């Protein structure tokens, strides 16, 4: 076999894995030293290779963009759902706090606040009234002084 070339039929059976143990080794040794048989074997392999479609790359890119868009929309939905859950839990916590407070304590605190506010507002009003009374007294005193001067 080393002096003669391998038939196409034997190369195809070798390629498909149908050669026996000794035959397999002999063909392998021959292909390694014979350029013609190595070229013929390469042609057998090329015939079996399937070529990719012309728009294969564009299809992959287009499909990956579609998948990316779906992932983004899913992540936006997840973010929105998470936001809704947080808002809902916050509202529930606020409601629990409101209803867990003692109503009597709220009324007491409200009354104390009103007393303090009334007292503060009362003090301010009294202060303004006193200042106003002083201003009025001073005004009339000046009028009397002027009146007394005119009469003399």
What can you tell me about this protein's structure?
5% of the residues are buried. Helix content is 85%, strand content 0%. The chain is mostly helical.
Question: Would you spell out the secondary-structure blueprint of this structure?
Answer:
Layout: H1 8-15, H2 21-33, H3 35-48, H4 56-100, H5 103-151
Give the C-alpha Rg.
Answer: 52 Å
The arrangement of helices and strands along the chain is: HHHHH
Q: Percent helix among the residues?
A: over 70%
Poorly predicted runs are none
Number of helices: 5
Describe what is shown at a glance.
By secondary structure, the protein is mainly α. 85% of the residues lie in helices and 0% in strands.
Highlighted features:
rod-shaped, mainly alpha, 152 residues, 5 helices, single chain
């Amino acid at each position: 076999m080393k002096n003669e070339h391998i038939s196409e039929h034997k190369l195809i059976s070798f390629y498909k894995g149908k050669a026996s143990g000794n035959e397999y080794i002999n063909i392998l040794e021959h292909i390694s030293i014979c350029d013609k048989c190595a070229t013929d074997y390469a042609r057998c392999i090329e015939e079996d290779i399937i070529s990719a479609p012309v728009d294969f790359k564009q299809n992959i890119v287009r499909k990956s963009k579609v998948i990316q868009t779906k992932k983004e929309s899913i992540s936006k939905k997840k973010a929105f759902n998470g936001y809704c859950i947080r808002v809902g839990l916050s509202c529930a916590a606020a409601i629990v706090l409101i209803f867990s407070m003692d109503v009597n304590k709220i009324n007491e605190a409200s009354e104390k606040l009103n007393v303090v506010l009334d007292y503060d507002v009362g003090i301010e009003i009294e202060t303004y009234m006193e200042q106003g009374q002083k201003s009025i007294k001073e005004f009339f005193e000046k009028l009397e002084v002027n009146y007394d001067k005119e009469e003399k």
